[in-house]
What does this fold into?
Amino acid sequence: MQRTSIKITSEKLNLQECYSFVEDDSCGGISVFVGTVRNDTQGKEVKQLDFSTYKPMAIKEMQKIANLALEKFDIKKIAIHHAEGMLQIRDVPVIITVSSKHRKAAFEACEFAIDTLKQTVPIWKKEYFSDGEVWVNAHP
Amino acid sequence: MKIKTLFFGITTDLIGASQLDIDINEKTSIKDFKEVLKKVYSQLENIDSYAIAVNEEYATDATVLNERDVVAVIPPVSGG
It folds into this structure.
């Protein structure tokens, strides 16, 4: 039984696909995190975001996170899907779904997965404003 | 020897290329490789920090490069 689903795509992410993947008869809950493109950064209006990836390594790092989540938490299945390319406000760059017998593990694993993804997975976003563009996090 | 080096995120813009062959001595460590980068591409000083990956895995300063390794310069990530 496949317990992890990892994907990077330039197509629109599919929430139903992520949900269906983690469904399981033995589970009492499914937690879902959906990242969305916000329309401002520190008071400045964002027009769109461009996500670029080091795809083969990013897939590997996402797989590591999923495997680690299965080790650390009492969960059944986990899906981590990320988009690449140009996204508009309200578009969805990332979806994480986790199923578990009891809800706490699903919540914790979901938070762990998105927090770790933001630290380790080689994906970068460039924010486009009306007067220019900026690589996010490049100057911490 | 020449090492295939990939650039991502802001480093692509700073270097003006997404891929270069960089000339290094045999048995160069990542620590030394970063020194070479700094010397040849001083514009990288415009970012505070970056990681290095070798063959799609994060490397430490002590990692030693071999011919045919693929190096990637990984500026601070911002996925999600």
Q: What stands out?
A: The longest strand of chain B covers residues 2-7.
